[in-house]
Amino acid sequence: MMVRFIALLLVLAMSEAQAAQWRLVKDEAGIQVYLQQIPGSSFQAFRGVTRIRVDMPRLLALQDDVSAACAWIHACSEQKLLKHEGELSWAYSRFHTPWPVQPRDSILQVTTTRDADGSVSRALHGVADYLPLQQGFVRVSKVEGFWSLTPREDEIEVVYQVHSEPGGSVPAWLANSFVVDAPFNTLQGLRQLAEQP
Fold it and tell me: Name one GO cellular component term (predicted).
């Protein structure tokens, strides 16, 4: 009994320590952006949180239209669906970068899970070697993250969290601005589109 109690205390302490690592860096227009240092990485993870007045089918449809989603994803210049199998899909994306940084591309495997309470999660996993390298682009070497969509009365709480290794050389100022701008602008773009009459 005592061992179980100590184990529970350890789990709670670890959860609190992990939660404490997230720092709120932006709270504007109903969108909160948090950052977290990742051990062994020069690049921070981001988490964006907001609420959107929309029903789940419309929100999922906006995300499932991979090519059109590029219009609301931060810095996205092109995106296409490569493959779809049940709850799994693979998408290829290209991203704008300011001069003189070379443009990036990435390939994501997305796993969609639907829960009994109506919430939907999409796990994001980078598969950098899914396609050969493309001329003129640096492949994002690692991506791990998720979308979490949870119904809350007449709104959906949306959480967008990602940690990536952009590959190649990226100036600190660009990396630091990207981890704030990416979740904020992406969630703002998605919300504006979803809440259109």
Answer: cytoplasm
155 contacts 118 by C-beta, under 8 angstroms: no
CATH code, domain with 60: 3.30.530.20
Q: If 0-12 CB within 10 Å is exposed, 13-18 middle and 19+ buried, where does residue 190 land?
A: buried
Q: Per-residue pLDDT tens for 125-143?
A: 999 999 999 999 999 999 9
* C-alpha to C-alpha distances, 172 to 5, 39, 45, 56, 133, nearest whole angstrom: 44, 17, 14, 37, 24
Boundaries of domain holding 142: 22-194
Residue 110 placed within a domain: yes
Report yes or no on 136 lying in a domain.
yes
Q: Per the confidence metrics, is the pTM higher than 0.85?
A: yes
How far apart, in Å, are the Cα atoms of 176 and each of 13, 79, 166? 29, 24, 12
